[in-house]
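Long-time lurker, first post. I've been practising inverse folding by hand and with some scripts of my own, and I keep getting stuck on stretches where the structure tokens seem ambiguous. Below is the full token string for one chain I'm working on. Before anyone asks, I'm not after the true native sequence, just a reasonable design that respects the backbone. If someone could post their per-position residues I'd love to compare against what I wrote down in my notebook.
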């Protein structure tokens, strides 16, 4: 539901206010009901400015960590990724972000495009729409339907962007869906609306990376959790927390171990972690954490390397001792390798091998 801004020296000045605000949710609660605000103008996805990433231009999704030896290979990629970013709007001036807000767009670019979407640039062309995202408080609004209305409005944009992508960009290529937090919430709905009842579109699905949001096992029927590292037409999901944490609403949720790409509960040693990417984004930290799937959550022991913070929110057990901010970063190299492996498997199966 939230993405911090990863960068130095700016990150400290920006992340600390985020964490302080989140310690008191009323501070980020819009002061009026949803209908009393003017709805920001809907995006026209024919305009490149309404995309945070496109493979036809230079943008933040093209970067790779320094000193990593990685390269942006979108120009020759065999697949596409449709990436939906997490919440980068924390304001209370309205329930949904305005796409003309340059500050919000900048935060999206330097944080989520750079440190999440970029994981796919070795395997897929990256298409990442901007959208009128729901403000962070929408996901904690338990007393009214204001948050639901804001989330629904945001999803309408994601759905519109995906339709535009299919009509104008895809050209029958294999598709990876990927998101985080609010983005994953919208992608889960997108799978229900577009893929569940369309066998032809399902055949284009390499995999969906539904990270950082609760995905109950019963959410999808035709698209099921991936059983291993090379299965296609399936999805993976996880929410990373301190080892030993429990949260009852997640007990029937899908949790994939990104070190083994299975849903079993066997603990995986940190030696299987090919590398995390910290806030500094300047090196690969190998063996940064271990991982174990347990009751719908992904347990890890705290990383010894600097730059992988927990997200602590008093009074919210689902976020206490959570590594939500670094669901991607802790397993960056494993995700990158796995996306490539699934695309290769998809191509072999498409060619009848």
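-- Answer (accepted) --
I ran through it position by position. Result:
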């Amino acid at each position: 539901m939230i993405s911090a801004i990863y960068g130095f020296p700016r990150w400290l000045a920006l992340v600390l206010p985020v964490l302080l605000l989140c310690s008191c949710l009323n501070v980020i609660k819009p002061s009026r009901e949803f209908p009393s605000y003017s709805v920001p103008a809907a995006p026209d996805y024919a305009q490149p400015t309404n995309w945070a990433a496109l493979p036809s231009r230079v943008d933040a999704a093209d970067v790779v960590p320094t000193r990593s030896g990685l390269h942006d290979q979108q120009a020759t990629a065999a697949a596409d990724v449709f990436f939906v970013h997490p919440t980068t709007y924390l304001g209370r001036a309205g329930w949904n972000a305005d796409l003309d807000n340059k500050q919000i767009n900048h935060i999206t670019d330097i944080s989520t495009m750079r440190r999440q979407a970029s994981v796919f640039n070795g395997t897929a062309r990256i298409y990442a729409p901007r959208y009128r995202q729901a403000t962070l408080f929408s996901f904690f609004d338990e007393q009214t339907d204001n948050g639901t209305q804001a989330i629904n409005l945001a999803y309408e944009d994601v759905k519109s962007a995906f339709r535009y992508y299919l009509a104008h960009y895809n050209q029958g290529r294999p598709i990876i869906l990927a998101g985080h937090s609010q983005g994953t919430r919208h992608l889960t709905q997108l799978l229900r609306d577009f893929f569940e009842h369309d066998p032809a579109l399902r055949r284009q699905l390499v995999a969906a990376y539904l990270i950082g949001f609760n995905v109950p096992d019963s959410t999808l029927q035709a698209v099921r959790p991936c059983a291993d590292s090379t299965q296609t037409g399936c999805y993976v999901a996880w929410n990373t927390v301190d080892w030993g944490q429990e949260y009852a609403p997640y007990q029937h949720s899908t949790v994939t171990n990104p070190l083994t790409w299975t849903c079993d509960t066997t603990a995986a040693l940190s030696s299987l972690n090919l590398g995390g990417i910290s806030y500094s984004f300047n090196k690969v930290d190998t063996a940064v954490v271990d991982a174990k799937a347990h009751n719908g959550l992904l347990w890890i022991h705290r990383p010894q390397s600097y730059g992988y913070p927990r997200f602590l929110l008093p009074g919210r057990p689902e976020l206490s001792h959570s590594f939500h901010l670094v669901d991607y970063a802790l397993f960056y190299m494993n995700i990158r390798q796995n996306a490539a492996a699934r695309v290769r498997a998809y191509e072999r199966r498409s060619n009848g091998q």
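A couple of notes from the structure itself: The CA atoms of residues 179 and 284 lie 22 Å apart. The helical segments are 10-22, 102-115, 146-170, 182-195, 199-204, 332-350. Happy to go over any region you disagree with.
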